[in-house]
Structures are given as C-alpha cells and as structure tokens.
Amino acid sequence: MKLISLELSDFRCFLGSHRIEFSHDPERRVTIFHGENGAGKTNLLNAIHWCFTGKFTPRFQDKQILVNKEASRQGRRECFVEIVLQDESERGSSSAIYRIRRSATNDRETGFEVFRVEKGNSTVVPAGQGLIHRFLPAGLVSWFFFDAEAIGSLELSGSEPFRQDLRKTLGFDLVDTLLADLEAVYTKRRQEVASQTNDKDLKEIQSRMDDIDRALPGLIEERDKHERKVSELSAELELVRAELAKKPKAEPLEKNRRSIEAEMAGFSREKLEYARRAAETVGRAAPATFLQTLVARLAGKLDEQEVRGRLPSPFSDQLVDDILKDHKCICGRDVNEGTEEEKRIRDLLKFASTGELNRRINAVRYLSKDVERFGREFPADIQSIRSKMASIDRSIGSREDRLKEITQELQGIDQDEIKKLEHRRIELEAARTSILMSLGAVKHQIENVEARKADLKVRYDLTVKRLAVNARLNKEMKKVQRLIAYITAAAKEQEKRALNVLSIELNSVLDRYLTKHYRAKIDPATYAVQLIDEDGKKVGHSTGEGQVLKFAFIATVVAMAAKKTQEKIEWLSVPTVAPLVLDAPFSALDPVYQGSVAKNLANQTTQLVLMISSAAWGESVEEALEPFVGKRYLIVSKEAGARGQKPIKTLHLKGRDYELNQYGAAHPESVFGEIA
Amino acid sequence: MSRGPLFSKERVVYWPDEFSYVVDFLTGRDATGRVVANPLYSLNTGAIVLAASIGVKYGRRRDVGNKRKEISTATFAGQDLERYIFLIPLLGNPDLGTDVLRVENEETLVREFERWAAGGLEILAGEISESAGKDADVIIQRLMLQREEGSPESEEMPELI
Predict the structure, then answer these.
(1) Strand order in the sheet with A14-21
(2) Tag placement on chain B: N or C end, fewer CB within 10 Å?
C-alpha cells in the first residue's frame, strides 16, 4: 500500500482546504514536511492516523477539538481528512486506487467511507474498515504511523501483543488462523468419533477437552487484554518519565532513578543465578551430607576387613571352580563328585570373591570417598552462595530505599507540574504492577489448561487405538492431523528463517551505524529484542544505542515484509507492506546517529513520510535523505498580530533560506508550501 | 574405574505414586511437568536417591505399594547415580553385608533401596507440608542442618562379612 495524496479540511491548525501529494516513486520515495514546533507536524501525522483508524497517537493533545477554531467561528462545524492510496497487493491487476474519507465535528465522528476509484469514478466499498484492515491491520498502525519522539515507549520486551503484532506484520497471523480452523475441524471429528464409538472413557475425555476448548479462548482474550493494558501503561509511564526528565529540577533525580533501576535489574538477574546455583549445590551435596556419618563408619569397617584379609575374600570363584574341575584340592586331597568334600568346597562359592563383586565393592568405596568429599565441601560452598545472595539482597534493599528517597525528593520539589508527573508515575507503576500480577495468574492458568489438554489428547489417542472407529472418520482425522503437522512444520521453519533474517539484517544495520560493538539478540519464544554489549551484558533500551536499535528494528521489519532486505524470504502468506510515517524521527536520537538512522530508514522502506523540525535537520540527515527525496513541503505557521521583537525561524536548504513562520496574519493557521 | 552399568541386566526401581508431587517439587516442576522453580535435580533419579538417603539416615522404610511409578536402573547409571542403589541398602541393613552386592542378590538390593526411598519420600512429604511456600533447597538444607545437630542412626555398624 502506498499513500498518493492527502486532503485536509478545517482539521486542527489547517484552516480551509489543503491538498498535498506524497511521493510514491520507488526511487524517490521520501516525502518531507519541514515545520517548527507547533506548526502542525503532529496534527498532520494524526490526520493520517485518524483517517485510517478513527484514533489518535497517545501523545496527541486536546483530542476533542478537531475543527479549526477560525472555521468554527465562521460557522463551519465539521472537518474531514481524505486519503488516496494505492493497493499493490491485488492479484490480476497491477494496482487499485482507494479513497478513504473520515469526518467529524468536535463532538463526534460524522462519517467514514471508503471508495474504490476506477477510471475517475468512485464506488463505495461496503464494510470499508475491513478493507483498510487488510491494507494495515488495526494493531499495526502504531508500527507504521508513529510519533518518533515517543520511540522510547516502544516495547521490545517480548510481550504477547508485541509478538502478535510482529507476526501480523510478517504475515504469520494468516497461518495461525488456518491452524486454528484446522484444529476446529479436528475437534469436530474427535467429537464424532466419541459419539460413534459410544465408549464411556472416550466420551469422558472428549467432554473434558470440550470444557477446555470452551474456557481457553476466554482466558487467552483476558491475557491479551492484560498484555495490551501493560503495554499502554508502560508507554504512558515512559512518556511521563521522559517529561519528568525534561524538567531541570527533576532531571538529575530521574536520571539517578533510571540508573538505580538498571542496577537493581542487574542485581535481580544475579540473584536468580545464585538461587539456581544454591539449588544445584544443595541437590548435589544433600545425599552425601545425609549419608556422611554412615558412610564413614562403613569405610572404617571395609578398611578393617581389608586389614584382616577378608576383603576381598581370600579366595576367588576361579580357585573354587578349578578345584571342582580338577577334582583335587590345593592341599593335594581328592575332591570327588558327590562327596562331602565336594559339597563343602562348592559351598565356598557363596563367599568367594568374584570380578563382579569386587567391581561393585570398589564402586561403593569410590562413592564413599565422593560422599565424604561432597559432604566436606558443601558447608563452604553453600555458605559462599548464601552470603552472596544476602549481599545482593542488601544491595537491592539499599537501592529500594534510595528510590523511595528520590520519590520523596521529587514530591518535595516546589513545582506543581513535577509533583503531578511524579504522582502520575506512581499511579502508573502501581497500576502496571497490579495488572502484571493478574497477567501472571492468567498465564499460569493458560499453561495449566494447555498442559491438561495435551495430556487429554494423548489419552484420547491411546483410547481410540483400542476401539473400532469408523474407517471414514479415522481417515479424515488422520488427514487433518497430517495437514496440521505439515502446516505447523512449514510455519515453524519459516518463522525460524524470518527471525534469523531479522537478526542478520538488524545486526548488519547496527554494525554499520553504531560506534560501539553491540549485537542484537532475538528470543525465538517471545520475539523480545535485546541489545548485548561486548561482554555479553544487556544494554538498556533507554540508552542512545537502544533508541537506534528501535529505529533499526522497525525499519528492518518493514523492509523484510516488503522484501527489501539483502536476505529474502518466500512468505507463506502476504505480509504487511505500508509506508512508514514518522513525526520528529530524529529528535530522540543522539546527533551522532541521526544521519545513519535516516539513511537506513530511506533504504529499508517502500515509502517514507517524515515530519522534521529545522533543529533536527542537520547536514548528516540532509546528506542521507537527499538522494531519496521526491516531495518536500514547508508547514508555515502564521500568527495573528504584529511581529514586534519575535523571531523568524528559517530552514536553510540547498543554499536558500525558507521562512517557517510569519506574523500579521488575519487569524492563526498553518499552510503548506511545496518546495520544488 | 569402569563407568559401565553395575547391574548385570536392566532392572526397575519402583517408587510410590502418592509422592509424585514430592518428586516434582524436587525437580522444580508442577503437576503438569512445567518448570516452575529452580530444580535440585534435573531428573527424578536425583530426587529418588535423595529420598533413599534421607530414609536410611532416619531409619524410615516402607513398602512401595501397588500404585507406583518406575525408573530403569539404566537411567540411574546414565546419571552416575547407580552406585547409590548398591550403597544405601548396605548402609541401611545391618544383616546384609557385602554379599548383598553379589549378582544373585540384585533383586533384593533394588527392593531394599526402594523401601528406603519410599520411607524418605514420606519424610520429605511431611517436611514440605510443614514448610509450605519455602523453596526446595531451603527445606533440604534445613533438614541437613538437623542432621548435623543430632543423629538418630545407630552407633555401631554391623559386621559386614
């Protein structure tokens, strides 16, 4: 999908009608909007976001005032946003053009329509929102249209919604749906088998599986709801903390808090490792410790027997066998068969040493030595581990105290805004902790239920084996099973390949652009992405390099879906291909990385729309983007009233200066001006 | 020394099913087999050897009963724990002597080991129920400390041969 044009009418700071065209040339795929703070860059991003979804980005303020104030004064009550897009995924035709239009008053949304445009004629598409979701699934809008100043709130920690969103972007959700459908077919066949065989056990097992099938979707829905809530709360928390860090009085405290939290996270990981070691050490030494005294006595007895020449036995089974075979004792007397002598000598076999017996006695003696050693070493080993754990606990405790102090210091600052932000932070932390606890409980329930179901399935299959099942049903069940196995294996293989490609591409970007030797690691189970330093330690996502990782991650995912990476994948189903629209993409980045991130974004996307302030427009960004720029607009902010001493801000571009704000307008508004 | 199996043929060690939760607890798993805590042992064999050690230490033995689970001696051998099946009956029964280690006594030896393990599992079940919420390593370490404080085993070892 590509954006062709956008029309705004009385939307926020844009009075009257404004039409802009996006560059959709594959080579010159970047459209840039230059504007100062307050000129309307975020309004423009939200116009696109709202038109697609009916919702706004999290940081968008005054959502209830959509209609331009001057337009309202002039009696116009409604605003609208219209987007023309090109869908390139339709089979059998080169592409299709659609027009989306959403309108609203300040009170409510008044219209949403999607039209298909053919030869200049527009036809309404029934259930247009469904079509839009096909271009860009609802959950993915925040991946493609986003306020990059809030990139810090992008969670790469591997939550279930994150994993689901990534799977959707890469097209795996269709495979998941197919598998769910096949599973439903299989369940139906199983129910038929249970009813056909009329076996009591089978019916009971089937009934329990049906109960689980009824309960599981509700639990999964609850889990996803909690996960999304945690993501929302985390995003808001991150924004609140970013705001706090901007306040001069709060900044050092907030920085200190982040550093303490990072230390605590390190200590917690260390504690988990020591807890694992403690369990392992206790496990290894426990039998030895319990047996130590008994074993010492046994060893003493064995040694005593050995000294007395009784251990091993002074004669071997081989000697007895030889005497019986030769019918002659070592003393020279005959030992004839059936005689009392022969019987007495044969009885000696019971007490003779044998190779096997000696090997076992030796094994016991060696074990006794191991037991003594484990038992001896254990007190010092466990003492060292427990001391370390206690020391970690103290370190965590002292940092917890310091965090409390920081909270008190922040609340003590004589600035209402800081107090409010800190208060909000505490509320959000508490809310997130509470939801995380509920989430943990639900996840635990789901795991239990799924394990029970897996167990029931095994029992079902075993029971079916001993029953006479209708040949047709049996054949159908086996067919569905084979299909599920085949698709699951194919999907797993592709998922493995996708994550591998993602990891290769991501690290290749980091190699090229980061000054430090960091690597990105992706957890195949959760899709969590972690930056790892040269010593193998985790690097925080809030660092400068962490921010670069986030940009690189999004650009790589978008590029993979569009087959724009070096390593390519033949997708099982169509991934999401859409433009990347970013407001303030570079302001959250360390200047040293701005040029490289800009170049990467331009390289990896099929279409890129950027809203940039003059402060973030440096030489490195210009140099990186210039070869890709197809369209460029100024968003000029016009203020009512005389200029007086107020500054005029300018953008210096290709040897020319462009004014970004003007004074003396009849009313405040923002206008677009295209730069050729 | 040779690390080959000590048993002349593969035999089965049984343990009471009623204590499955104790074994799960020691291997860090819940009833569904999911890992939920740091395991003292990665396999059930480790838990059974611990139980037998506790059984013999506290002089507690009992029959396994009809509802039982089984582990092959080959699995013990694979974990280098087979030697305990030979050692523990020798420590626990004054009348056996080293002759119990002879090939012809293997079945007797395994049954003896099982009884001590079943007794130990019973003790562990009691300890776990008294220390609900505590980690396995903490419970076992506490038991180990009790051992150091006072020992109920008999003072004299029997004649072995």
Answers:
(1) A14-21, A2-11, A79-87, A96-104, A109-118, A121-124
(2) N
